[in-house]
């Protein structure tokens, strides 16, 4: 079963435009610098040209950050040192403008939209007057907004049973697709995928292990900060979840939606849809940390060409993130040992993404500047 709207989105996703890629590479070679001297920025400008189908590509601004929030049944296994209600309390903090992502979004003139994808604690008493909006088409950089896209209030414990049904996973994907479409239609030229969900590094590790075939010990990290003993236990919980899925899903072992429904989370489903939606609308999407990385693996398994729309904002300290990025073939723009989530690392990278485009658009060529090219 694949929903028609999901099928239509997958159908709309096309790989990068080869002529625009060639034109951008050719122009990079003619700019007044040794080829490759601007390192990863050059590749970013080429990727964005391929996505836009023009060289140079448009300025990727303004940006909108969608922070997908949800809770996780696997929290009951003692995989996080933080109580579950922190997910809802941080949603309130995002809406009040006091979280790290708000500070960084203000610095870059980016809008923040918080998506309730399945937070367990009731949010109503915590939502400021006027912050709740029906959809993402009225989101503006002036103040953070909340949209309600609850598929269910919290996932089930992935070490015991599937996180959600396949139908719920599809609904999550569709929500993310719709939000990306609304932000693109509202004039946002760059999307950022962020997350909030106590215990979500456990489901992220499980997804990364499943999609990359890596052992749980290599992709499971300390999340918000657990000690050695709790970390050993967390690796064991991920192993149990993977073994349960393999035993239960043996008729469709490779189906990305089944894997997502079995060992993922509600925010992973919506972020994966958000990536698909951005790629279908050919709007660049900057991924944040390990949660967005795990979700992008789901999207890429559904449509490999989505990777051409993705940029890795940073590399998280969580070990599974590097494994996910390597599998996706993405180079992180910054590595500041961040492990916060919320979209913070991706928003930090936005000025670099704009710089990459500005360089390709505005730098002089050897011809126009009258600079002699290298002799051999
Ligand atoms: O972005 C990351 O790579 C990242 C790494 C570690 C923790 N986090 C954030 O911390 C929360 C999950 O951590 P934990 O330990 O409760 O699984 C969740 O809200 C994430 O946004 C995020
Ligand atoms: C305080 C806090 C803030 C966060 N932001 C994203 N994940 C988080 C987890 C915690 C615990």
Verbal overview:
With 376 residues, the chain is α/β, with parallel strands linked by helices. The protein has one domain: Rossmann fold. 49% of the residues lie in helices and 10% in strands. The chain has helices at 4-12, 18-30, 39-52, 86-96, 100-108, 166-185, 200-212, 216-219, 228-248, 256-263, 266-280, 290-302, 319-328, 344-362, 366-369, and strands at residues 63-70, 111-118, 145-148, 190-196, 285-287, 310-314, 332-334. α13 (319-328) links the parallel β6 and β7. α5 (100-108) packs parallel to α14 (344-362) and α7 crosses α9 (228-248). The longest helix is centred in the middle third of the chain and has 21 residues, at 228-248. It is globular.
The CATH superfamily is known as Nicotinate-nucleotide-dimethylbenzimidazole phosphoribosyltransferase (CobT), large domain
Please tell me the overall pLDDT: 97
Strand content: 5-15%
What is the CATH topology assignment? Rossmann fold
- Supply the number of helical segments: 15
The strand count comes to 7
SSE order: HHHEHHEEHEHHHHHEHEHEHH
Task: Tell me the overall shape.
Answer: globular
Helix content: 40-55%
**What is the CATH-assigned architecture?**
3-Layer(aba) Sandwich
Number of domains: 1
User: Could you name the ranges where pLDDT drops below 50 across 5 or more consecutive residues?
Assistant: none
Determine and state the CATH class.
Answer: Alpha Beta
Give the terminus-to-terminus CA distance: 58 Å
Rg of Cα set: 20 Å
Q: Pairing-aware structural class of the strands and helices?
A: alpha/beta
């Amino acid at each position: 079963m694949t929903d028609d709207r999901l099928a239509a989105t997958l159908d709309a996703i096309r790989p990068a435009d080869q002529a625009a890629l060639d034109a951008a590479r050719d122009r990079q070679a003619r700019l007044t610098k040794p080829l490759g001297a601007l390192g990863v920025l050059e590749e970013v400008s080429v990727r964005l040209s391929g996505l836009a189908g023009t060289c140079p590509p448009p300025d990727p601004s303004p940006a909108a950050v969608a922070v997908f929030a949800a809770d996780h049944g696997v929290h009951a296994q003692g995989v996080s040192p933080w109580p579950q209600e922190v997910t809802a309390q941080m949603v309130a903090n995002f809406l009040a403008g006091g979280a790290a992502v708000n500070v960084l979004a203000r610095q870059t003139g980016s809008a923040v939209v918080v998506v309730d994808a399945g937070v367990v604690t009731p949010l109503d008493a915590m939502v400021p007057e006027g912050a709740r909006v029906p959809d993402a088409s009225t989101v503006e950089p002036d103040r953070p907004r909340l949209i309600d896209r609850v598929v269910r209030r919290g996932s089930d414990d992935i070490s015991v049973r599937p996180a959600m049904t396949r139908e719920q996973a599809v609904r999550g994907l569709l929500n993310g697709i719709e939000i990306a479409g609304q932000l693109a239609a509202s004039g946002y030229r760059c999307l950022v995928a962020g997350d909030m969900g106590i215990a979500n590094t456990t489901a992220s590790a499980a997804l990364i292990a499943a999609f990359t075939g890596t052992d749980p010990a290599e992709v499971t990290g300390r999340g918000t900060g657990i000690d050695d003993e709790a970390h050993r236990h967390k690796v064991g919980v991920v192993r149990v979840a993977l073994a349960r899925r393999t035993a239960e899903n043996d008729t469709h072992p490779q189906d990305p939606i089944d894997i997502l429904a079995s060992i993922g989370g509600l925010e992973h489903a919506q972020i994966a849809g958000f990536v698909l939606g951005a790629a279908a609308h050919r709007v660049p999407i900057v991924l944040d940390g390990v949660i967005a990385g795990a979700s992008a693996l789901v999207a890429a398994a559904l449509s490999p060409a989505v990777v051409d729309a993705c940029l890795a904002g940073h590399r998280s300290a969580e070990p599974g993130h590097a494994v996910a990025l390597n599998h996706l073939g993405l180079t992180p723009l910054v590595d500041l040992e961040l492990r916060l989530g919320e979209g913070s690392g991706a928003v930090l990278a936005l000025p670099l993404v704009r710089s990459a485009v500005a360089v390709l658009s505005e730098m002089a060529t050897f011809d126009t500047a009258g600079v002699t090219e290298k002799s051999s």
